[in-house]
Design a protein that fits this description.
The structure holds two protein chains of two kinds.
Chain A (H helix, E strand, L loop, with lengths): L1 H25 L7 H4 L7 H11 L5 H13 L5 E2 L4 E2 H36 L4 H15 L2 H15 L12 H30 L2 H8 L4 H38 L5 H10 L3 H29 L7
Antiparallel strand pairs in A: 1-2
Helix pairs in contact in A: 1-12, 5-6, 5-8, 5-10, 5-11, 5-12, 6-8, 7-8, 7-10, 8-10, 9-10, 10-11, 10-12, 11-12
Chain B lengths: L17 H10 L2 H23 L37 H37 L1 H16 L2 H12 L3 H11 L2 H15 L2 H8 L4 H37 L11 H10 L6 H28 L5
Classes of the chains: A mainly alpha, B mainly alpha.
């Protein structure tokens, strides 16, 4: 198993290098990167040339990339011109807020989806099943930024139970986490339901029932454990989707995380922060995918990975 | 013509008249009917917005600010869904907003589809280094959240209709590549491909005549569902201020305005959000129905 994970981590290296290439070229897609860093239309050609030289943009592209990588290896993404500070620490500073929001959303999603998905599968065509299937169709169509606004309207404006935006108290976490969690829960419910339906038909479930085990034990100890494996695969793939959602929902609720910082940076063309942000987001997604792989081995001892 | 001797093998989907076949199947599926009705309505709204819209969608009318929808007390009957913070008719703006969603959704998915299908067929058919390289590229695109990457590129290129289409198209090719690559590998191993090769057909001919028609059903389904997620992505970027810019009306930017007035005038945010949700729901219904009809194996 250690060998498998060693190989998985080795496989991540080319992807990581490609991510750095994407980040490197993103600020160059329009040609001159100086235009991203300074208001070029206000400068004289001499000033622009001087800037280009100062940033090293007049050197061959591969030299620039090697230089970029050398700095990146030291955690140096350049300086944010808006905050006049190194970009990476600014992004890292916001990381905890984003992680808290994403974890809370994932927790809410699982807490909703597990019982709903299992009951929908066990009592097929019941009322719970109908609710679960309808909700999962609706959930695919509801944009999270709109759901967020509707929740604000209901629970903050009309009922006054929860704050509209910000992040000062735990109560501030509820609405953004629910907004993200509901979207994720609808996908998860659908997956858990269909996966459980598949598993319930298997012979070993019939055997377990024949042994006289209670429905509860059969479902939780036998069916769920195997039913969760395909669900987990898709959940790993949803990591990127979840973080994309975080970026938008942070904006709706003025939640001061990485996403909000990045959107502001994009709007003000603070490219050092944009580059550092994309890099950190990619790292989180890769780490989440790796942890999902790790979880497999706990769920299914048959998976050995060698 | 000798090359005509080997007919491409189609799925059993294609009788003499495809339209008649689809229409027959549609009559048996209420979900499909709802999908077709919604999608047709949205297309008509986009096409005929200047004809249907009761008011001009962009010019401010400050004496008519924040009027509630017509069914509420204190409303004017002229403004079905009320007016926004600048006194513009929300119903007319929702109609006009459909244009950006339709154009961006369809164009971006077309770009993604061409890149993804071509690269997927080539990678699946030839394998080897090409497959490894595209595989790693796909992993890379999957590692960066879609909206984050789109955000960064739009930020550099500057927000405009064309840039939005290009970015969403270029970022969205991955799902097409994965599906088409997998199916191509399976198809390339079938006897009729071997037969075509024995008859001396070139790789390009085999891909065009035998592989492409067989991956088409999955691609059509995927493309339909992808239009739905692209419309959501476009709205999200507009909501963040990085979509098509003023004075063009977009559902996302209407929602961003609505967010500001959520405490005082809820209808500003409800109408465009409902428009997005219903549109996306219609496309999903259509896509799910197409999947049942075209490729039952995918269910």
């Amino acid at each position: 198993m250690q060998r498998y994970f060693a190989r998985r981590i080795l496989q991540m290296i080319p992807v990581l290098v490609l991510v750095t290439l994407v980040i490197f070229f993103v600020i160059r897609v329009k040609g001159d990167p100086v235009a991203q860093l300074a208001p070029v239309d206000l400068l004289t050609p001499q000033e622009i040339a001087a800037l280009r030289h100062a940033y090293g943009f007049d050197r061959p592209i591969y030299v620039q990339y090697v230089d970029f990588m050398v700095h990146l290896a030291q955690g140096d993404f350049g300086t944010s011109f808006r905050y006049r500070q190194p970009a990476l620490p600014l992004v890292i500073e916001r990381l905890p807020k984003t992680v808290v929001l994403a974890l809370a959303a994932a927790l809410i999603a699982w807490l909703m989806a597990l019982p709903l998905g299992i009951i929908a599968a066990v009592r097929r065509n019941s009322l719970v099943d109908l609710v679960a299937t309808t909700a999962s169709v609706l959930g695919r169509a509801l944009p999270n930024f709109w759901l967020g606004i509707i929740l604000i309207l209901l629970f903050a404006v009309s009922l006054g139970w929860l704050p509209v935006s910000g992040s000062d108290t735990p109560a501030h976490l509820v609405l953004p986490a629910v907004t993200l969690g509901v979207g994720l829960a609808t996908t998860l419910t659908r997956l858990i339901r269909s996966s459980m339906l598949e598993v319930i038909r298997q012979d070993y479930i019939v055997t377990a029932r024949a042994k006289g085990l209670t429905q509860r034990v059969v479902m939780i100890k036998h069916a769920l454990r195997n039913g969760l494996i395909p669900v987990l695969t898709v959940f790993g793939l949803q990591a990127a989707w979840l973080l994309g959602g975080v970026v938008i929902v942070e904006q709706v609720f003025a939640w001061p995380g990485m996403g909000q910082l990045m959107v502001k940076a994009v709007l003000t063309r603070d490219m050092a922060i944009v580059q550092a942000g994309v890099f950190v987001f990619a790292l989180i997604v890769m780490a989440m995918n790796l942890s999902v792989d790790l979880l497999y081995t706990f769920l299914d001892p048959q998976i050995r990975f060698d | 013509m000798a090359a005509e001797a080997v007919q491409p093998i189609h799925l059993p989907v294609v009788p003499s008249s495809r339209i008649a076949f689809l229409a027959r199947r549609l009559r048996r599926s209420p979900v499909g009917v709802i999908g077709v009705v919604i999608v047709t309505a949205v297309l008509l709204a986009a096409l005929l917005a200047p004809v249907i819209a009761p008011h001009e969608p962009v010019r401010p009318q400050f004496d008519r600010r924040l009027l509630p929808p017509a069914f509420l007390p204190g409303a004017s009957r002229d403004y079905l869904l009320g007016t926004d913070n600048l006194g513009r008719d929300i119903f007319s703006r929702v109609l006009y907003g459909s244009r950006v969603s339709v154009v961006v959704g369809v164009s971006a998915v077309s770009i993604a589809c061409v890149i993804g299908v071509t690269s997927g067929m080539l990678a699946g058919f030839h394998g080897g280094a090409l497959d490894v390289v595209t595989g790693r590229l796909v992993d890379t695109f999957l590692s960066i959240p879609f909206i984050v990457l789109a955000l960064a590129i739009v930020g550099v290129l500057g927000p405009s209709l064309v840039n939005l289409i290009v970015v969403l198209g270029v970022v969205g090719w991955v799902s097409f590549n994965r599906v088409v690559r997998g199916e191509t590998i399976a198809i390339a191993a079938r006897e009729f491909v071997l037969a075509a090769r024995a008859l001396g057909q070139t790789n390009a001919q085999i891909l065009r005549r035998h592989v492409l028609p067989n991956v088409a059903p999955s691609v059509i389904v995927l493309a339909t569902l992808d239009v739905a997620s692209t419309i959501i992505a476009e709205s999200a970027l507009s909501f963040l201020g990085l979509g098509v810019q003023h004075p063009t009306v977009t559902w996302g930017s209407m929602l961003a305005d609505g967010r500001q007035y959520v405490a005082t005038a809820w209808w500003l945010a409800v109408a465009p959000g409902l428009a997005i949700t219903v549109t996306v729901l219609g496309i999903i219904f259509l896509g799910d129905w197409l999947r049942d009809v075209l490729d039952p194996r995918l269910r």
